[in-house]
Amino acid sequence: MLMTWAIAGTYMTLLGVLALYGAHRGFLLWALRQNRAMEPQTSDTPHRRVTIQLPIYNEPAVTRRLIDAVAQIEWPADRLQIQVLDDSTDITSAIVDQAVAQWVAKGVGIEVTRRSSRTGYKAGALAHGLQSATGEYIAILDADFVPGTDFLTQLMPHFTQGVGMVQARWGHINRNESWLTRMQAMLLDAHFVIEHAARHQSGRFFNFNGTAGI
Predict the structure, then answer these.
(1) Alpha helices of the chain — where are they, by DSSP H?
(2) Which of 20, 29, 92, 97 is the most buried (most CB within 10 A)?
(3) Span 77-100, pLDDT tens digits
(4) How many Å apart are CA 110 and CA 80, to the nearest integer?
(5) Are 156 and 136 in contact, with CB atoms under 8 Å apart?
């Protein structure tokens, strides 16, 4: 009898949690529909100095792709600083050095920063990079991202009065790779298209996702 009640209690608790989650998603959809006509404000401010931080740790398969993509972002060269924050302990460091050297030879303002220890992990690397950052704005991109050349020209105009952060939507290179990647893409799309949009358009707070934003 005790086991039966334990199972029933667990079952009802899970149902309650799912019901709350469903109600929350329903509210977000309602908020999105009520405020769907709202257009984001943009400004015509001149090009500001931006520092792009690339925190990397033992990611040899995607590091070169990231550096090549960021080095081709369209922004005035004298107002762009790219920091490769490399905490790697494997061949990734050699890949970083080769890629950075090639882009520096082409006149791109990109530099490598390394630490003696991984204190604080990614957050520690970002904080360490801030000590030598020269940008008024800080953009962050993880190693598995591939920003388009218009990344800054699309996001920077949204910094109007009172705006402290602009979050970009995530895309998916391998969406159709398997059923798992399709499920992950669907969940992330819902997060950005529904949750972020509904919160922003209804004047509510929404969080920075830790990457692909300024």
Answers:
(1) 2-34, 63-71, 92-105, 121-130, 151-155, 179-190, 197-201
(2) 92
(3) 999 999 999 999 999 999 999 999
(4) 9
(5) no
